[in-house]
Design brief:
Elements lengths: L12 H15 L7 H15 L5 H15 L4 E5 L1 H18 L3 E3 L6 H18 L5 E2 L5 E2 L9 E2 L1 H5 L3 E5 L3 H9 L3 E5 L6 H5 L2 E3 L3 H12 L13 H15 L6
Helix pairs in contact: 3-9, 3-10, 4-5, 4-9
Length: about 250
């Protein structure tokens, strides 16, 4: 259980909890040096969104679930921050979807991979979650990428038809889209390259998204009620929400 020096009634409790998870992950060697910077940037956008799931983000979440459930070979791709912030929840989601997770990190070192794999293995064992964890032994490469970030597994990312990539780098997102995959992005910044490149972009905070997904999957139906999906409209709505919330002209 997470233990932080703050009362759950504190108005910033959830934010403090997530920061604490990153602090603990950093001590275990799970994160790159820029992890806190990346998280802080996302947290700033979350403030602008009002730290809530706006309707267009929920619409995108439902569309993402429809794509994942309808996929022949769905995969959840995890980087260091995702494992630290929502490792258990991502394994739970993968279990419900009956798909693997694959660790794929930009700053890949044997030590970081071992720390991340050990962390997920401990969660899987303690929670009794039956999910395949890939990434320890890459045996394929993502076309169009250079360096360690291109490494992946054939049975995971390479052969996937639908892939969810929370907190993703823009170049890898673009490469995955170019491969013909349906790419689901979770990104609090609607202006990021990943948000614009993804097929389905959820402009929301990671742990809220995964919680929403698990709740929706527990319901009899979770479709969009016949509403058509337009990713550009989702991004525009997020920008409009940010701008009108603070009284600036609408986008």
């Amino acid at each position: 259980m997470d233990e932080i020096a703050a009362d759950p009634s504190h108005p910033r409790y959830q934010s403090l909890l997530l920061r604490h998870r990153l602090e603990e992950a950093e001590k275990k060697g799970m994160l790159a040096g820029s992890a806190m910077i990346a998280h802080g940037r996302g947290e700033a956008y979350d403030y602008l969104l009002g730290e809530q799931t706006i309707p267009s983000a929920l619409h995108a979440t439902k569309e993402a679930l429809t794509a994942l459930k309808g996929a022949s070979h769905p995969v959840l791709s995890l980087n260091g921050n995702v494992v630290a912030l929502a490792g258990k929840e991502m394994l739970q989601l993968a279990a419900v979807l009956e798909c693997p997770v694959e660790i794929n990190i930009f700053y890949r070192t044997p030590e970081r991979m071992e720390a991340l794999l050990s962390h997920l293995e401990a969660i899987r064992s303690s929670e009794g979650i039956d999910v395949k964890i890939l990434g320890a032994k890459p045996n394929a490469k993502i076309p169009g990428l250079e360096g360690p970030r291109a490494n992946c597994t054939k049975e995971g990312i390479l052969d996937s038809d639908v892939i969810m990539v929370p907190l993703e780098d823009g170049d890898r997102c673009e490469a995955l889209v170019s491969m013909g995959k349906t790419v689901i992005v979770i990104d609090l910044n609607p202006l990021s390259r990943s948000a614009k490149m993804g097929n389905i972009t959820i402009v929301d905070e990671l742990t809220r998204v995964v919680t929403n997904m698990l709740e929706l999957l527990s319901q009899p139906t979770h479709d969009n009620g016949g509403l058509a999906y337009d990713n550009e409209a989702v991004l525009t709505d997020a920008l409009r929400h940010i701008s009108t919330k603070f009284g600036t002209p609408e986008v």
